[in-house]
User: Fold this.
Amino acid sequence: MKQVFTLLVLFYTGTSSYMLPKTQPAQLLTFNHVPDEMTGCGDSFYFTEKDKKKGIFIAVDNFEQVLVSLNGRMVKFKPGKGVRNKKHIGLFYQSYELSIDKLDQKLRDDEYYTFNAIITIKNGGKIVFQKRVIGDGGC
Assistant:
């Protein structure tokens, strides 16, 4: 009887942990190479002012899609059921949802502006990455 109970406990704990997927934190890594199709008009996002001066990005937005290095892999978040306006971007890649919320935006020139933003990534509805960043953009 004790052996049957032990087997049931092992089976139950093994299957329950197998059945519940664990949401891993996402990592957004910096990068400095931007493909030609992502250049031109758009927004660039940086962790720090120092990164901005060196051209080290956390994300690049060409107003159609957003390029990031997600868990070490370059991916493009694209519109799905997402919302896009001047203050909010909502895009998707596989099971991930990317939200960028601009907190403020200052016009610096006719076609150049700077801003602060919060980048949030959700996977399965759970926040797996969130960070305040700086950015600039225009045409």
In short: Confidence is low (pLDDT under 50) at residues 4-21.
